[in-house]
Amino acid sequence: MSPRQGQRTVCIPLETMDIPMSPEPPTFGLDVTMSPFQSSSKFRMDIPFSPAPEVRYGVDIPMSPDQGSKVNMDVPMSPTAQGAAAVELVSNPWDEELISSLLSKLSTPLTSQPNFITWQCKVPSIAPKMTIKMGEGSLRVDCVLGQGAFATVYQVTDLNTSEKMILKVQKPANPWEFYINSQLNARLQPSVRHLFNNIHSAHLFQNGSVLLGELYNCGTLLHAVNLYKNLSDKVIPQPLVMYFTVCILHMVEQLHNIHIVHADIKPDNFLLGERFLENKSFDQDNLDHGLALIDLGQSIDITLFPKGTAFNAKCMTSGFQCTEMQSGRPWNYQTEYFGIAGTVYCMIFGTYMQVTQEGGVWKTKYLEEIPTVICGQSSSTLC
């Protein structure tokens, strides 16, 4: 969503926020949200190189070090795999060779899409305060919003429209994120498309990729959790937690209905935009609640695998590894439910959820002191 005329867009650099990031540094799941597709002619980079007919994809889905392999095993069924006695087990759905193979077999190549542009050069140098020529317009690089091991996210301003946007630079390239974005465009109902990040355009270079999209300027659920720590109750009010939980469940359900597993559900990846500030209806069916699920670069397209396929790799954000990952059992949609539980837990208690296995039963670790009010009275235990 573009900023409304007369409204002030607020950029909160991540480095200025006193927030606990994920229990382990993410393999760059930065808060990047995009706006609906636009014509690529507006965003073609005006640099002295010609687009290449094809560039071999250097895919970076840095999750588990395990290599992708397939064997037939009896494993627990997923919600969409009913009636089969045995399913396919894929070791690592984020394996680079597997991702490259899946992309190479697409009936419609990414390079055929007008807003996917390849270049016969390396990613141009990008830094704050510089101006990047973009076709008929120019983008001023305002500041760095976040930086990880494999990507840097900048806030940029379109000098023609004054619109503030996100520029995500990834090294090596990650065309998979653009692919997932295109599938959301094709499979989701238009009425719910705004609940997920969307990419303006993608530029694939020899050593990396650049994604251009829209800026959400009201922070993440994690920011909200930390802001409430400075207030008397210390945590988000329970009615608001319940409302956000309903929104989150609905959003994840939309993804599962189109057979996409986000695979990185956590408070850091839910962003609030201006829709939230303008929202006057907290009805459970209201789709203008302002919450958006972002960072689909590690998502899994279940339709590209045999029905009932399960996986056994572990994501690198250990605090959000589902119990199946932790115990070495196959998983698919289970990782989503664990991520939802961990996100809700963080909103309720203001800290990350930790689980332990006792007598074959997985439980959340006991909190000696919970600085909150539960069921109307101060308590250190759940009621």
UniProtKB/TrEMBL annotation:
UniProt-listed Pfam families: Pkinase
Domain named Protein kinase: residues: 139-383
Subcellular location: Chromosome, Centromere, Kinetochore
GO molecular function (one): ATP binding
Gene Ontology CC: one annotated term: nucleus
Classification via SUPFAM superfamilies: Protein kinase-like (PK-like) (SSF56112)
Keywords annotated in UniProt: ATP-binding, Centromere, Chromosome, Kinase, Kinetochore, Nucleotide-binding, Serine/threonine-protein kinase, Transferase
GO biological process, any: mitotic spindle assembly checkpoint signaling
Gene3D superfamilies: 6.10.130.20, Transferase(Phosphotransferase) domain 1
List of residues binding ATP: 168
Primary residence: nucleus
Family as reported in the entry's similarity comment: Belongs to the protein kinase superfamily.
Protein name per UniProt: Protein kinase domain-containing protein
Organism for this UniProt entry: Coregonus suidteri
